[in-house]
Each structure stands twice: as C-alpha cells, then as structure tokens.
C-alpha cells in the first residue's frame, strides 16, 4: 500500500508541475487568455499542490506505521 501511495503522490506532483508550466506559459504569452484565466489556473495549481502534499504525508505516515 505505501508504494501505491508513493506512486500516486508522484503522479500528483507531476500534475502540479504540468499546471505550473501551463500557467507560466500562458503568462509569458499574455493576451486575453491570460487575463481571463490566470487566477483560475493559479487556484487550480494551489488545489493540486494541497492534494499532492496530503498524499505525500499519507504515504510517509503509511511507511512509518508499516501498513
């Protein structure tokens, strides 16, 4: 189970990276898309980061408890 949580945590971190790169790319391009969606992309990144952190903490807890 801990290995599965570790893999899921890694996938969540990659999702955060993807959202971050998408946001930076749209910011660099600018224009109407950036003005309209910049805050939504930022919120999505923060939510994805929170989920990733919780998954990492659960994986560490599971490894320490030996489940």
From TrEMBL:
It comes from the Bacteria. InterPro entries: Hypoxia_induced_domain (IPR007667). Pfam families: HIG_1_N. Keywords: Membrane, Transmembrane, Transmembrane helix. Coiled coil: none annotated. The chain crosses the membrane at residues 46-63. Residues 1-67 form the HIG1 domain. PROSITE patterns: HIG1 (PS51503). This is Hypoxia induced protein conserved region. It comes from Albimonas donghaensis.
């Amino acid at each position: 189970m801990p290995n599965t949580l570790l893999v899921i945590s890694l996938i969540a971190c990659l999702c955060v990276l993807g959202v971050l790169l998408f946001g930076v790319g749209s910011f660099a391009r600018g224009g109407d898309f950036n003005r309209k969606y910049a805050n939504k992309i930022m919120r999505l990144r923060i939510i994805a980061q929170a989920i990733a952190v919780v998954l990492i903490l659960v994986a560490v807890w599971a490894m320490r408890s030996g489940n």
